[in-house]
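Long-time lurker, first post. I've been practising inverse folding by hand and with some scripts of my own, and I keep getting stuck on stretches where the structure tokens seem ambiguous. Below is the full token string for one chain I'm working on. Before anyone asks, I'm not after the true native sequence, just a reasonable design that respects the backbone. If someone could post their per-position residues I'd love to compare against what I wrote down in my notebook.
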């Protein structure tokens, strides 16, 4: 009896709820995951992403069982008792994988439904962040520090990405309650700058607004770019 091949984790499986997450958040899945990893999303959305990741893992198990079942029917194997045994075993595995997937989908729905309700009741013009403010907040979300030049005394923010943000912009964002500085560190050594909860919420809401273009976030290694239009 030939051994059954192990699944090859070459890409993230598309979950059956991807389209609902994208509609509720205004982001494709790759962007949503990337924002989660950069601490842009609030706790409610972070929980949703965590549960969605678990769902995609269970969907991978369903896809593997289906492919294995298709292989059994491909004509590659002799039609004998051993084949019938493998088919029966694979059908049982597929049923178990589907049950696990359905349970994970239920967890996603429990986290998604309040977000859908909030999105439906939120006015589309609630956020008025400018394009420059959005870019500054997104850069700060990835890590940033405020430095004072020792010779000129000029201050500016340098993000981990290399983006520079003027001190005036920083003051504006601070006054709006969107960012805060850790003043326990000296400015010449670099004061860490981070988003407040209000800053994360404002950035996430602004990035999901349909009138603004969401930047393409590079796909994770081993994945293909998401294509929401092809999901059903």
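-- Answer (accepted) --
I ran through it position by position. Result:
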């Amino acid at each position: 009896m030939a051994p059954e091949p192990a699944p090859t984790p070459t890409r993230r499986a598309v979950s059956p709820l991807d389209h609902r997450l994208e509609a509720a958040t205004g982001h494709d899945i790759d962007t949503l995951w990337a924002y989660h990893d950069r601490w842009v999303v609030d706790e409610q959305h972070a929980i949703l992403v965590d549960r969605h990741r678990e769902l995609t893992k269970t969907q991978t198990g369903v896809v593997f069982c289906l492919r294995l079942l298709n292989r059994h029917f491909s004509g590659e194997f002799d039609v004998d008792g051993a084949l019938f045994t493998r088919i029966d075993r694979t059908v049982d595995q597929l049923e178990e994988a589907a049950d696990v997937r359905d349970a994970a989908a239920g967890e996603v729905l429990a986290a998604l439904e309040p977000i859908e309700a909030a999105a439906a009741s939120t006015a589309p013009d609630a956020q008025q962040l400018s394009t420059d403010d959005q870019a500054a907040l997104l850069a700060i979300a990835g890590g940033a520090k405020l430095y004072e030049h020792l010779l000129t005394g000029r201050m500016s923010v340098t993000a981990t990405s290399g983006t520079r943000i003027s001190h005036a912009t920083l003051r504006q964002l601070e006054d709006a309650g969107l960012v805060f500085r850790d003043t326990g560190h000296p400015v010449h050594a670099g004061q860490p700058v981070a988003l407040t909860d209000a800053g994360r919420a404002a950035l996430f809401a602004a990035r999901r607004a349909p009138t603004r273009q969401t930047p393409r976030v590079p796909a994770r290694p081993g994945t293909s770019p998401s294509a929401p239009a092809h999901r059903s």
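A couple of notes from the structure itself: The helical segments are 18-25, 29-37, 43-72, 81-121, 131-141, 167-175, 197-208. Residues 1-13, 210-232 have pLDDT under 50 and may be disordered. Happy to go over any region you disagree with.
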